[in-house]
Amino acid sequence: MRPNSPLRGKNSMLLGRVIGNVVCTMKNASLTGQKLLIVQPLDRNGREKGRPVIALDSVGAGAGAGETIYWCRGREASFPFLPSEPPADATIVGIVDVTNIPGLDG
Question: Which of 28, 93, 95, 98 is the most buried (most CB within 10 A)?
Answer without folding.
Answer: 93
